[in-house]
Every structure is written in structure tokens, then in C-alpha cells.
Amino acid sequence: MQKEVLLKVDELRTEFFSSKKSSVTAVDKVSFDIYKGEILGLVGESGCGKSVTSLSIMRLLKDTPGKVTHGHAILDGMDRISDSVSLACSVIGFVLMLAALWVQFGPKDKDFGKRP
């Protein structure tokens, strides 16, 4: 039986621009799938792009010099990067730092993470 892909991130690249000709690549060629019933944890060193990846997918970089310059994030058949429809944070969320507290105090409900 094939699992249902809920979110497909493909070749995501996010850059921060200091001028029209100068930029720093914060996220480059990030790809992953999240299947129904799964939870994904992004783990890495400080400054490696975990938060920028999440913010890019949720399109929360609009008031920053950051811009997604390549890639796709497909959710419910729509590309949340290039389409004009923004991604509601009620559908995708992320926890910054202190993930150990999430494990200890997070939801205990067996239906957590299932969409209505």
C-alpha cells in the first residue's frame, strides 16, 4: 500500500539579499516528503537553515530580505511557494529550539496531527 504524501518539498532554495547584486544562500536544494501520519523533525547545527526552511515553506519571509528563489512546496495539490495562496499556519507549524520541552509537554492525544 502506497502512503499518501501530505507535503512534498522539492529543491528549495532561499536567499537573503543585501542589495540587487549581493545575496547569501541560506537554504540550498532541500527536498523531503512528509507522509500521512508522520511528523518531521529538522535537526542540525545552529545556522544551518532549519528555521529558514520552515519559514520559507510557510511563506513567512515577506517582511525580510529573504526570498525563495527556487523550488516547490506542494500541499493539497497546490504549490505553496509559487501560488498566490498563502499557507495557513494552522495546517503546518514548527517549534523553535527547546524541542525537548515539546516531547515532555506536547500533545498526548493519539489523534494529534490528523487533519479534520
Characterise this structure:
The chain has one domain: P-loop containing nucleotide triphosphate hydrolases (Rossmann fold, 3-Layer(aba) Sandwich), CATH 3.40.50. It is 13% helix and 33% strand. It is built from two helices and four strands, in the order E-E-H-E-E-H. The chain has a four-stranded antiparallel sheet, covered by helices on one side. Strand 1 and strand 2 form a beta hairpin.
Task: Compile the SSE list and pairings.
Elements: E1 5-17, E2 23-35, H1 50-57, E3 66-75, E4 78-79, H2 99-105
Antiparallel strand pairs: 1-2, 1-3, 3-4
Do you know the CATH architecture?
3-Layer(aba) Sandwich
Considering the protein shown, what is the CATH homologous superfamily? P-loop containing nucleotide triphosphate hydrolases
Largest sheet: 4 strands, antiparallel
**Which class do the helix and strand fractions yield?**
mainly beta
How many DSSP-defined strands? 4
Supply the key terms:
116 residues; mainly beta; 2 helices; 4 strands
